[in-house]
Amino acid sequence: MARGGSAVAVLSFLLGLPLLSVLVAGEDPYRFFTWNVSYGDIYPLGVKQQGILINGQFPGPQIEAVTNDNLVVNVFNKLNEPFLLSWSGLQQRRNSFEDGVAGTTCPIPPGANFTYILQAKDQIGTYFYFPSLAFHKAAGGFGGIRVLSRPRIPVPFPPPAADYTVLIGDWYKTNHTDLRYMLDSGKALGFPDGLLINGRGWNGYTFTVQPGMTYRFRITNVGLATSLNIRFQGHTMKLVEVEGSHTMQTAYSSLDVHLGQSYSVLLTADQPGFDYSIVVSTRFTTKIISTTAVLHYANSAGKAPGPLPGGPTTQIDWSLNQARSIRYYRSSVHFLFLVQIQTRTVTMKDNVT
Ligand SMILES: *[C@@H]1O[C@H](CO)[C@@H](O)[C@H](O)[C@H]1NC(C)=O
Ligand SMILES: *[C@@H]1O[C@H](CO)[C@@H](O)[C@H](O)[C@H]1NC(C)=O
Ligand SMILES: *[C@@H]1O[C@H](CO)[C@@H](O)[C@H](O)[C@H]1NC(C)=O
């Protein structure tokens, strides 16, 4: 970073362009977080469980950042086991020892703390963090990360009225130590007991929308074993981002989200004022389970009429075709750049042959 800065400074001196150094003068901002990781009672499927909370929250607090921000996260481990956090999707350039998987980063011993120093270098988009050791993820400790574009960097859609995180995942009533023991003794994980949306079971979470406005929903599958499908009753989703890349804005009536994947969709509240269901169901499983959250119009007259929207269940082709339909967003500038690169490749090949 310093080297890049001074190179630009030298360049701007040579070229007599003081403006250039003004443009790069800003230090990348720092954001500081202090997180207490502890056990606490949660009731995601109606029965009491010992969850892993961050600052008392399940799921954990959301990280909001802007491209190039430095994130300094001081994590205090108040569990009785070593704990390690991983930052899914953050690229950790020249920074792999902060990635938080066994082998790159030491776990935080019980009662100790460790400060992760991360940078969202040149990144935008939707990511998440999760505990990477000891099956802790089955008890919580995960949360959303969003990296917004810097001001003046064009985003290929107008700012949404609000930006909602939707963490979906399978859930087991068996606690993480018992699940871990099962796996260690060679048994399969078994079928999940339910699905959660933002840590809540059936109709346990509500997203409120104003009629006529457009919202961004950042959807991540934070579960352990199950691919999921999500759909909004009476609405289509316009896909705009997949894990840090803007996409061509295709409309989908339902979307498969496999483990660890993150998608951003835009949804316009253009239907009559009701409470609509957001349905999440399992994919590729013989038994299908589902859960719902509520899309609540501020002017709602009550529950929307009609059945819950159905989705694909065991069809694999459907999922592959959907994945193949997703394309990078291309502005005309981006397109010219690609043409240039391709032309250059052709020229190089000509030289070789
Ligand atoms: C973390 O816990 C300590 C006490 O153990 C408390 O003083 C501090 O305020 C907590 N921090 C947060 C961010 O919750
Ligand atoms: C632990 O927390 C203290 C108090 O915030 C801080 O000064 C120290 O640097 C932290 N230690 C590590 C290893 O991050
Ligand atoms: C998990 O449940 C078992 C009993 O089935 C109990 O012995 C163990 O302490 C529990 N672990 C946690 C972390 O709550």
Automatic annotation (TrEMBL):
Keywords: Signal
InterPro entries registered for this protein in UniProt: Cu-oxidase-like_N, Cu-oxidase_2nd, Cu-oxidase_fam, Cupredoxin, CuRO_1_AAO-like
Cited SUPFAM superfamilies: Cupredoxins
Domain Plastocyanin-like: 37-150, 163-299
Signal peptide start-end: 1-26
Keyword Signal found: yes
Superkingdom of this protein's organism: Eukaryota
GO molecular function: copper ion binding; oxidoreductase activity
Family: Belongs to the multicopper oxidase family.
PANTHER family according to UniProt: MULTI-COPPER OXIDASE (PTHR11709), OS07G0510900 PROTEIN (PTHR11709:SF90)
Name of the molecule in the record: L-ascorbate oxidase-like protein
